[in-house]
Please model this.
Amino acid sequence: EQQAQAERHHREMMQVLQQQRSQPPPIQLQQQPEHRAQPQAPRGNPIFREFCRMNPPNFGGQYEPTEASEWLFCMEDMLEDLDCTPTEKVTFATRHFRGSASNWWHG
Model:
């Protein structure tokens, strides 16, 4: 039961991340460089600085359901305490992708 719930939660979170990744970028008034892997969280953003002080874990993309679920739960707990938008939550979390997770996110 708990394993199935964790796997279901993992699939839901990955769907949200995939949807976020596939959404077209907002219209910009000035042209931006063609190659942008992901939006950069401004280092001057006080919410991002606070998030970094929480020492969030990295995720390497291994599909060990328990490990992936633990990472998701940890990130959700950290981000829930911050006053940030859903887009910022995705940006902050995906900045901690490494290895195959980073490769998947960057396409």
User: Anything to note?
Assistant: Residues 28-39 have pLDDT under 50 and may be disordered. Residues 42-107 form one domain. The two ends are 33 Å apart (CA to CA). The longest helix spans residues 2-22.
